[in-house]
What does this fold into?
Amino acid sequence: MTEYQATFPWRTAIKEEVLERRMPPWGAVKGFGDFRNDQALTPEQLELIVSWAKGGSPEGDVKDVPAKDKLDEMMKESLWFGSSVKPARVPGELVVKGDFKLTRRFLLDGLFPQNVPAGGSFQIIAELPDGRVEPLLWLDGYRPEFTHSFLFRTPIDLPAGTVISGIPPGSSVTLLPAGKN
Amino acid sequence: MRATLLALIVALIAGQAPVPAPLPSQNPNEVYICPMDPDVRSHNPGKCARCGMALVAGLPDPVEYHLDLNVKPRPVRPGQPASLEFTVQDPWKNRPVTTFQVIHEKLFHMFVVSQDLEVFVHNHPTLGSDGKFHYDYVFPKAGMYRVLGDFYPDGATPQLIAKTVLVPGAAPKPVALTRDYSPKDTENLTIELETEPAQPISGSETRMVFRLKPDDGMEKYLGAWGHMLVASVDLIDMVHEHPFIADGGPQVQFNVVFPRAKPYRVWVQFQRRGVVNTAHFDVVVKELGK
It folds into this structure.
């Protein structure tokens, strides 16, 4: 659906889906962890879509529509069009369940949650040996189709003794290493 | 649906937000837009009638900047002084951003809300010679705090970015909000609330009308007749609003779209005779037909 005429009938559903954060299919709460592949809409973008829906959903100016090659490029950059959701196995990755204590230092590049219950809402945190508590990932209203990696903007250095907690029963999270660990 | 969203965003980027009928101006093709309220537009330069910000021609496309929050000491302890340091970076090459536009009389607005919704702070970190914003604060209790930064990098659009601080210790019990529209007596005001519709619906506009007593002496606070922060009970949704209708009289109207069917706490701030009055109300938002 890339034409205005096809999009218009969905205007209310689009507004509701983005306000409920079911679209884009990202799944993480903004501002709890900082991700370089963040697909969540900003408050400004949400407001723009709501205003568009509320204001009669008018058609834009055709001269402002990106060229097809630019549009193709945007689609490739989008997580759900351009990449496999399941990353290839990475040497040094750790699959963790429940509360997991690191026995060695781990430079954390990202997280890949699996088997998350539909509608699940939980916060994954890192409790460091010095007492710090770092937010890693907050999933809310999770859906199986959201399954993908969450890649940190900058790797997080977790010393030995760090406890990763907040993973719900039955779920697992792959800790993706940054470079050499 | 995914393609729909992308198409929508492309269409929105194409810039078809409603534009009022042309007004007399020197250049009838120029459109001046409020950076904070982009639906406020004019063919003439001037100030936004809603928030007072200068209207800008050629507003750039909205792009989210990076905001890093560094809290010291590490770990931060409840009841102990902490230093908050905010660093802004551009989204393209992570270059530090050190020049900002004034937004409502300040370079940076910071909101802090605690997990139990009992703590509310609206204050203004100061820009240091290191290009970072600094603020000293004592987190009063353990648990999660959401910190909202509101700033306007030069050459960009205003940014509203949430961060999270986890203060070690026993977190407060989850709160259960019920509707509370009762009048609030603050420093030198009584603030009453009425909503239209009476039952707010998620995804639809709710008009929140505040009646202020006594009805004299109202002043703008930070360039606006009022400020509002809306937070969902789970602290996922955080919305910063300014009055939609206000003239310095005793009635102030905010228009709010509550994103989800959840309870929300709404803080409002009004200034009267040099005193800032802060109050909160609790709004239970329902889904249409439920």
Q: What stands out?
A: The first strand of chain B starts at residue 32 and ends at 33. Residues 148 and 167 of chain B are 16 Å apart (CA to CA).
